[in-house]
Specification:
- There is one protein chain.
- With 263 residues, the protein is of the alpha+beta class.
- The protein has two domains: 107 residues, Pseudouridine synthase I, catalytic domain, N-terminal subdomain (Alpha-Beta Plaits); 131 residues, Pseudouridine synthase I, catalytic domain, C-terminal subdomain (Alpha-Beta Plaits), CATH 3.30.70.
- The chain is built from five helices and nine strands, in the order βαββαβββαββααβ.
- Strands 1, 2, 3, 4, 5, 6, 7, 8 and 9 form a nine-stranded mixed beta sheet that branches.
- Helix 3 crosses helix 4.
- The longest helix has 13 residues.
- The chain is globular and about 60 Å long.
């Protein structure tokens, strides 16, 4: 058996996240599993680099799977074409490459990067792709509060209760708001993220930008380790997984250039 990684992107509007659900809801993982199993003519189970929530998008997502087919790299373009031909229009495979047999798309990732998009004007073409807010936001104050995230590791205040979490500790590497024309983009990188963490952080930072929450109040929320003290979770449609990093020399074959755009 050979282990491969695939790099893909997806528009999450139609899906209940990445991970296969026990109920009948559609998930990206199930779509990818069905496609790989059909094209490779064997049962395939792909393990993803994370568990994006319902409605969340990904422009740079990785998954691994094992197959008896050892020829996928002999004509990589042909196989990518086949894979994409069997996928719905809202999921795309961009690359495939071989890795060692113990490589794991989820547990070997050293960091992940998300972006959250806030549209400052009503735009019908950004429905389910951005959060619309036409009020005044103090971006400087939001960035000042975002810097405080570097001073903490326990982010229980921004996480949904999940008994599967052995810890709520995360190390944030980057957290910054930027203005691009008529949108605000919050970009955050960390070694790991808790369920709902980014959306709760964004909602709380927006309270700072609205003048409803002070910098000291933001720090008190983090220190309380109580989700009920933080702001609301902003809509899922504005959230994008835009980058996943792995250790240097992790991949045994050359990769195509990663996708670096929001949908």
């Amino acid at each position: 058996m050979q282990r491969y990684f695939i790099r893909l992107s997806y528009n999450g509007i139609a899906y209940h996240g990445w991970q296969v659900q026990e109920n009948t809801f559609s998930t990206v993982q199930q779509v990818v599993n069905d496609m790989l199993s059909m094209v490779l003519n064997e049962p395939i189970f792909a393990t993803g680099c994370g568990r994006t929530d319902a409605g969340v998008h990904a422009t740079d997502f990785y998954a691994h799977f094992d197959t008896a087919n050892a020829e996928l790299l002999e004509n990589k373009g042909k196989w990518i074409f086949k894979f994409n031909g069997a996928l719905p229009a809202d999921v795309a495979i961009h690359d495939i490459f071989a890795v060692h047999g113990e490589a794991n798309a989820r547990f070997d990732a050293v960091s992940r990067t998300y972006e959250y998009v806030v549209s400052k004007k009503k735009d019908p073409f950004r429905i389910d792709r951005a959060c619309f807010y036409n009020g005044v936001l103090d971006v400087a104050a939001m960035n000042k509060a975002a810097l405080e995230l570097f001073n903490y590791t326990d982010f229980s205040s921004f996480a949904k209760i999940n008994p599967q979490n052995f810890t709520n500790n995360c190390k944030v590497f980057k957290a910054e708001w930027k203005e691009e024309n008529d949108v605000l983009i919050f970009r955050i990188s960390a070694d790991r993220f808790l369920r709902n963490m980014v959306r709760a952080i964004v909602g709380t930072l927006m309270d700072v930008g609205k003048g409803k929450l002070s910098l000291e109040g933001f720090k008190e929320i983090i220190e309380s380790k109580n989700r009920s003290n933080a702001g609301y979770s902003v809509p899922a449609g504005g959230l994008y997984l835009v980058g996943v990093a792995y250790p240097e020399h992790f991949f045994t074959t050359q990769r195509n250039n990663p996708v670096a755009e929001r949908l």
